[in-house]
Specification:
Mean pLDDT: 89
Number of domains: 1
CATH topology: Helicase, Ruva Protein, domain 3
Keywords: DNA-binding
Oligomer: single chain
Strand content: under 5%
Radius of gyration: 24 Å
InterPro entries: DNA_bind_arc (IPR022889), PDCD5-like (IPR002836), PDCD5-like_sf (IPR036883)
Order of helices and strands: HHHH
Distance between the termini: 81 Å
Shape: elongated
Family: Belongs to the PDCD5 family.
Structural class: mainly alpha
GO cellular component, one term: cytosol
Low-confidence stretches: none
GO molecular function, one term: DNA binding
Length: 110
């Protein structure tokens, strides 16, 4: 009968750890959602509707680029290095600059 109590304690400990893990994961997800909402509010303030639509389109195709671009736009706007609101043409120029820095050129020799 002592063995049954030991197994019960083990199961209870496993359940407790699993619950803690789930709670931590839920808290991290909640924090990520809050951060995303704050970024979205900031972007709505610094981008025109057309530029925001372009950013949303980029997010569909290349989410990692959109996230990097969001961070850069927020940094540019908060430092005053770009005039707010950023219109679609300005966003295109920023994108061109990013592409020119990250684009790789391939040369084939025959």
């Amino acid at each position: 009968m002592a063995e049954g109590g030991f197994e019960d304690r083990e199961l209870e400990e496993i359940r407790r750890r699993k619950l803690e893990e789930l709670q931590k994961r839920a808290e991290l997800e909640r924090q990520a959602q809050i951060a995303a909402a704050q970024r979205r509010v900031a972007l709505k303030r610094i981008l025109t509707p057309e530029a925001l639509a372009r950013l949303d389109n980029i997010r569909v195709v290349r989410p990692e680029l959109a996230e990097a671009l969001e961070q850069q736009l927020i940094a540019l706007a908060s430092s005053g290095r770009v005039k707010v609101p950023i219109d679609d043409e300005t966003l295109k120029k920023i994108l061109e600059a990013i592409y020119s820095q990250t684009r790789r050129e391939y040369r084939f020799r025959l």
